[in-house]
Structure prediction request, 173 residues.
Amino acid sequence: MLGDAEGVHKRDRAGARRRAREFCMALLYASDAGGEGEGGLAQAPTLLELLIEAWELTREEARKLAPAVGEFGGRLCLCYFEHRNEVDQHIDRLSEGWTIGRMPIVDRSILRMAMTELLFFSDIPVGATIDEAVELAKEYGTAESARFINGILGTMARELARREPPSGAEEAG
Prediction:
C-alpha cells in the first residue's frame, strides 16, 4: 500500500500519488508514442529516474518517495494494460466527436490512466482521480485538454455512481 512504503507518511501520500499518476501517464505516453504497448513498461526504471530529476527532489525525498511512486504508478499502468480494451472502449464511447486514435497522445495517456483508476481502484475517491487528471492535463496538454478530460471522466463517474447501490442499501432476497 502506498502509505505503508518506508518513510512515506500519511501527509506525503497525496504528493506520492500525484507523482505516481504523472509517472503512469509518462509511461503510457512513452509506450504509445514508441508503439511498444505493454513492452514499453521496460522503460519504467529509467523514466522514473528522469522524472525524479525533473521534480528536483532531494536525495532523501527521492529515496523515500521513489518506491511508493513506482509501486502505485506501476500498478496503475499494469492494470491499464490488463484491461486496455475495456478502458479504451469507455473512452471512445464517451469522447463525442473524437476517436481515441485521433486524440493527442498526452490526452489519451491521461484518460487511460484516470479511467483505469475510476474503473478498477474503488478505494480512491472519484473526485481525487478526476482532479489529478485535470491538473495533469493543464500541465501537459493543450488549452482544451483539461475541459475535455474533465467532461469524459465526469460522465464516467456519474455512470459508475448510478451502477452502485446506495450505501447502506440492503440486498433484496
Residues 1-13, 168-173 have pLDDT under 50 and may be disordered. The domain at 83-163 is CATH 1.10.940.10 (N-utilizing Substance Protein B Homolog; Chain A).
